[in-house]
Amino acid sequence: MDYSLAALKVVCAQLKDAHDVPSQNALTLGGILFQRAWLQGILVSNSGDGRFLLDDGTGVIELHLSGDFRSREWDVGCTCFFLLSSTFLVRLLVRLLGLYVMVVGGYFLRKGDTPMVKVHKIVDLSPFPDREAMWYLEVIEAYKLFYQPLIEEFV
């Protein structure tokens, strides 16, 4: 993972325009290279094996909790957890369903399947009443200030 490439603040609908750039080991969105996506939405489904679906109102994306996630400390509901076992992980995921969360992770396109984010960070934002409206404003601001000028230059 190339951390010199920014994690793009996006909604799922924007990611539908992303394309692989194999020579760069990255993706491009209107000429902007990236490997990680920063999303927010509601956790709506859990497969029980560290995979679940996030719905941000513009689309759905699959989230996958990587091995790194299980050995790191994460903020969930303002409480830190060390995820040491898969049983604990499943109990944690059941608690997460219906929560509004912020997720950052590696974005992967999959042919014939829902795109996936390998989660690096997940934070419960449910206690904050204006979280969803603020997120859309943040995405719009990032697009207008940073992404749009690059996209217009690329086109």
TrEMBL record:
* Gene3D superfamilies in alphabetical order: Nucleic acid-binding proteins
Q: What's an example Gene Ontology biological process for this entry?
A: regulation of sister chromatid segregation
Metal-binding recorded as keyword? no
One GO cellular component this record assigns the protein to is: nuclear speck
Q: Which InterPro entries match?
A: NA-bd_OB-fold, RMI2
- List keywords of the entry alphabetically: Membrane, Transmembrane, Transmembrane helix
Protein's UniProt keywords contain Membrane: yes
What stretches pass through the bilayer?
88-109
Instruction: Give the protein name, as stated in the record.
Output: RecQ-mediated genome instability protein 2
Source species, please?
Tripterygium wilfordii (Thunder God vine)
